[in-house]
Amino acid sequence: MGWRFFFEENVKINALRRRILKGDKSMAKAAKQEDRKIIRIFDTTLRDGEQAPGNSMNMEEKLRIAKHLHKLNVDVIEAGFPIASEGDFDAVKKIAQTIKGPEIAGLCRSSEKDIDRAWEALKYAGEKGRIHTFIATSDIHMKYKLQMEPAKVLASAVKAVKRAASYTANIEFSCEDAVRTRLPFLAEVVEAVIAAGATTVNIPDTVGYTIPFEYFNIIKYLKDNVPNIDKAIISVHCHNDLGLSVANSIAAIQAGAGQVECTINGIGERAGNCSLEEFVMILKTRKDILPFATNVVTEQLTPASRLLTAITGIAVQPNKSIVGANAFAHEAGIHQHGMLMEKTTYEIMTPESVGLLASALVLGKHSGRHAFKKRLEELGYELNDDKLNRAFDRFKDLADLKKEVFDEDLDAIVSDEAREEDHFKLDHVTVTCGSFAVATATVQMQINGITARTAELGDGPVDSTFKAIKKLTKSKSKLTQYNVGSITGGTDAQGEVTVRVSEGNHSVVGKGSSTDIIVASAKAYIHALNRLNNKQKRLTDAV
Ligand code: KIV
Ligand code: ZN
User: Fold this and answer.
1) Boundary residue ending a domain (392, 417, 442)
2) Nearby residues for ligand 2 (ion, Cβ within 5 Å)
3) How far is the CA of 516 from the centre of ligand 1 (A)?
4) Axis-axis angle for helices 59-72, 86-98 (nearest 10)
5) Is residue 318 in some structural domain?
6) Mind listing the pLDDT tens digit for each residue in 498-513?
């Protein structure tokens, strides 16, 4: 029956599209109807996104992202997993205390301890605080991971929702690995948790396994077979292991889902989650045949993507939809010709609609602190006075070296300054190298406020610099990746270096920028070592 419904829906959509293409204006108007269904956007960049390797953020960074999510006007911000660590708890609490507007969710397993801890952090958001509790429902997870019988899983789910209901009426329940769950059992769990008080039921594709047609049928099955389904919003949460997370989310809303869980830049466990910017822009761009909308301010999408990249150091691929560097670049001559005649020949949405404004010369060496601060605020940065002063000094130095200063340069400067209090700081690096010299680096650093200096020989300027830093910091980590690029064009452009370092199970990314590539490399390496140090410290504190 679900299959038939899906097929018929597609036949209707295709007929509608044919009529629009033939110029039937009445149909186009019908597709613009006022009663477009609003799909709620549940952003999990700070929880599922942050879980992914290299994406860990500290509290200050999470708060900056949360402020930007507020500007984007998402409906729900999943701020973290409060019982996972002290750091996660503090971040959820701080976001619940500070961000007023979106609902703030915190994840917890289906145990009383988890739920109580989650509410302790979420209570500051009042009725906008959402307890998001979950348990796995697929046979494979119940047997091997939980080692629990289905009846026990069902009882735990109901008990968890009842416990959450003792704190709030805003409860989301997730059936982890729903896509591989037997449908009658999935329906039984969903019905029971709604009866117990869940107001949102999430049907995740935890392992990124489903395809649109199948997912549509799962949601449709629940709509048809869960008697109290109208008492809750159906949410979907798709992972991208087969590259279908966005397509699956679209299929799910066509079947009746009312909330989509997604992340900025599509970050998340393994291959990531449904990308927020892609999902939102599909609804906006294809509103001719998709009768849905979101509350998202799409002009904030590019700034959100950039902010996340600046914080995590993980760049999006250049050809990434919506926010990739090439997403609006028209290189081929024939395309450029078409664009000059009529933009819509090759452009299905405008760069302005996603907040991508031509990289403008924003500030010059005569710009004052006020203009600098204002531009930073427009880019989504709020720095305290100390950090603002340091960033302004760096901007002035850069403006002396470089004729033109672009937004990308500001991103690079500020992401250096906006970081948490660092344990390791670079004072100076000097290198001698060349075709007839053994590369020698002299590095001076502050190690927790104490000045330390050393010199090391190496196989080139970067190697000698990194050896000196490693010696001073006594780090046991391994450098696993080193990339260098330029932030803008020209020989006076700032170089941007990204490194990845690993130790044990931890792997972090560091970024640094400067007009001198060796200084940029030293900064990137030190940034990574600070992040590794903070991460290890957070985990030790949590034990
Ligand atoms: O992927 C998943 O199933 C999850 C749940 C905890 C919602 O992240
Ligand atoms: Zn997930």
Assistant:
1) 417
2) 48
3) 43
4) 40
5) no
6) 888 888 877 777 888 8
